[in-house]
Design goal:
Blueprint (H helix, E strand, L loop, with lengths): L12 H9 L8 H14 L4 H14 L5 H4 L4 H8 L8 H21 L2 H5 L8 E2 L13 H13 L6 H10 L3 E2 L6 H8 L3
Parallel strand pairs: 1-2
Helix pairs in contact: 2-3, 2-6, 2-9, 8-9
Length: 192
């Protein structure tokens, strides 16, 4: 059996698949980067696996995270979203996801792509950490603080430093697989 990071539930196929295929791998697809921004915001104060289980529902109701479509959502759409048990039915989080879509579009216009914008917070390449124990992994770093401040300044919501660091972990801006996890070496070998 493969040795994985301790947060993975070996009995949960979704947990294993997410860990083995996505978490920590450098991501440069603008739509996916936006998807993770929305999902990390939805996760605030909740369990990440709960959000991951609702991910397909989010993709359906948020038009596959198309920011152009999401930016045009009106009050009728918001009410339909609030009645959908397949997502987190929190008005503030839903309204912030829509507002973030509008801000995302502006950032893409300014920077050429969201990828170009977001990866500059780590100098364009993943930070390769070498944690022996999960307790050593921080929840906030200086890079996450800078990212959070810049996102907030631009008008993004639900982008505190803890959320930003979780986002960095999920999108491979940092490699936080512990050293004895089989994915640490694989992710280290991936090119940004």
């Amino acid at each position: 059996m493969k040795k994985r990071c301790p947060w993975v539930d070996p009995e949960d196929p979704l947990s294993c698949e997410y860990h083995d295929r996505e978490w920590g791998a450098p991501l440069h697809d603008d739509r996916k980067l936006f998807e993770f921004l929305v999902l990390e915001g939805a996760q605030a104060g909740l369990n990440w696996m709960m959000i991951l289980r609702k991910r397909e529902n989010y993709r359906q109701v948020f038009d596959d995270f198309d920011p152009t479509k999401m930016a045009r959502y009106d009050t009728k759409k918001i009410e339909r979203l609030l009645s959908n048990s397949g997502i987190v039915r929190n008005r503030l989080k839903i309204e912030c996801a829509i507002a973030n879509a509008k801000t995302y579009i502006e950032v893409c216009k300014e920077c050429g792509s969201f990828d170009a914008y977001i990866w500059r917070f780590v100098g364009g390449k993943p930070i390769q950490n070498r944690w022996k124990h999960p307790r050593d992994i921080p929840t906030i770093t200086p890079e996450a603080r800078v990212m959070s401040a810049d996102l907030s300044r631009r008008g993004f919501k639900f982008v505190g430093p803890t959320i930003c660091y979780a986002y960095m972990q999920a999108t491979g801006m940092v490699n936080d697989h512990v050293l004895d996890c089989y994915r640490h070496k694989e992710v280290t070998a991936l090119r940004a």
